[in-house]
Amino acid sequence: MTESILRKNRRIPFRIVVEPRLSEPPAWYPAVISLIAIIIALFIGGLLIELAGGDAVRSYLHIANASFGDIGVLSDTIVKATPILLAALACSVAFRMKLWNIGAEGQFIMGAFGASAIVLTPVLPAGTSPWIFIPVMILAGMAAGAIWGFIPGFLKARFNVNEIISSLMLNYIAVAWVNFWIFAVWTEGGFQMSTKFPENSWLPRLLDYANIVPLFRGLTTHLGLLIGIVAAVILWFVIFRSRWGYEIRLIGDNPRAAKYAGIDITRNIVLVMMLSGALAGLGGMSEVTGVVHRLQTSPIAAGYGFTGIIVAWLAKLNPLVIILVSVLFGALILAGREIQPSGVPKMIQGIILVCLIASDFFLRYQIRFERVED
Amino acid sequence: MDFINILQAGVASGTVLLFATIGEVLAERSGVLNLGVEGMMLIGAMSAYSVAVNLGDPWLGVLVAMLFAGLISQIHAFIVITLQADQVVSGLALTFVGTGISLVLGEGLSKSGAVPLLPTVTIPLLANIPFIGPIFFTDQSVLVYIGYMMVPLVWYYINRTRPGLHLRAVGEYPAAADALGINVFRMRYLYVFIGGMLAGLAGATISLAVSPGWFSELTTGGQGWIAIGLVIFAQWDPLRAALGSYAFGALRRLILDIQGPSVLFGLANPFYYNPYWGFFLQMLPYAFTVIVLVIGSREAMRKRLGAPAALGDPYIRGERGK
Prior knowledge:
By secondary structure, chain A is mainly α. Chain A is 67% helix and 5% strand.
């Protein structure tokens, strides 16, 4: 398709030719395109904020100040980025195989539930050493998330059930499930939250070491960040350096070729959904034991699973890039809590995703201006 | 607990799903999967309620809701039809954008007082039919009757008219439709727009008729996603879409009402005495959606029926057809 899409206009001595790229664009090109897309998205978002009666410039300056202004807020930004990082890793591995797991939110919530069950049932007594508590809670969170990912994976593999809808439906079920437990069983005085976890089940935070390093005073960055970064590095190796990762990428790019190469697609659907669920569950575990310290729906089911979708896409599904992008979105969410109207961060996230998808066009096509010769 | 009342309210509640599902059926029949239904419904619910609050005219609210949601749907249309991007991600993005915009513009709307709602109507003779009359034709919102009329009309349109034939051709084999002189791009834009308008209508049905008000994201509570699930169950057929929608509407009402009475069928009502069991009832619509998907998908495998062949694929002129 090399013909011009816009017809020749006689009055203007140029015409615009849109044609498919034949060669790969240079390595910096996708990043620049994404950056331009984000700038355009922020501009559109600003226009909408103005239309809704807000002050766009002040909102954006506020976001920058309230998230990167000093080391204290930077730490808060990183705390917000941690659950996004793990949720985005979860989405990225499934999306890599073109499995549209949009149930990371539910798997995240179930991960928080699984970890909480260890403390609240209690499986381990309150006085257990953190060296035992935390690994057990990590495993429980990952297992609960993996089970929640297994359901849509199995239904897809066995009955060809659309995983988009089934995984999304499980989000709502997860919220109702956790609500039942925090209202009926583990409630603290009838409020919609569980009792507080004992301190030795909390993930260690920087402020715990303030007596050694005075700089850490008041910083709430917790072990979850390290867990997330380690998970990202491991996932990078799995995707790009392992045989399994090669299978996942091949199925995503060309399922027919994968089938003829003898790769078991059904099995991989289930496994990848479970891996995806386990990563999201790890995020829920990290949030409940690192930040909230009790099971409670509103701060846990705050949409990290959905933000993860956008972050994964923006990072082009690359686990290492996801680390950086998560921090940006952590900032947006952290600062966004104080911006009026309250829907602004959500709206900006949506517009960013729209602009990103639209910008992919420029990776696949190139646009030339051509002089029209008479 | 009166079952007639529950079914009557269930039909009204099902009308929401009906509009959204039929809209999505039309869009998907043209080959465009639009996962933005939830976002478009929120746009519709917010704008309908907002117009009714500020201008006092619910009908104007319905009109604005349909136009606004239709307009928002064109973002998706542009991205997937003209820019040929992935329909799944673009649809998700549309849901985010629709949700975000409706939250921003709907700020403070939940605190507004009484709002003029759409009128309810009882059809004189039909309401006297035993059982059916009180359920379908008594004290229903005008929109419910529009829903009844829409189902056979859309079925007839898709299956028995020339433009309906073109619609199916565009969704099944766009290259052949193009060769016949049908403008594939224009048709797809049009049906995504119609789908968006119907999703907006569904939203307006919630906020101005079925459960009046604006409760931010809880206004729709995932009904847009349930509608997308129902499209698969319905096998892209408006008649089955109606069946599924009304069944789900009745289920929603039943869940709300079953917790009310202390005595159920002469026995102590467990949901009355254990209010927390209500959380399990809340799961039911979502669990049933998954079950209904399994049924629909198995049936599709067995009968070798399925989605419109070109669903999800961008049409690129001059590229070899599949």
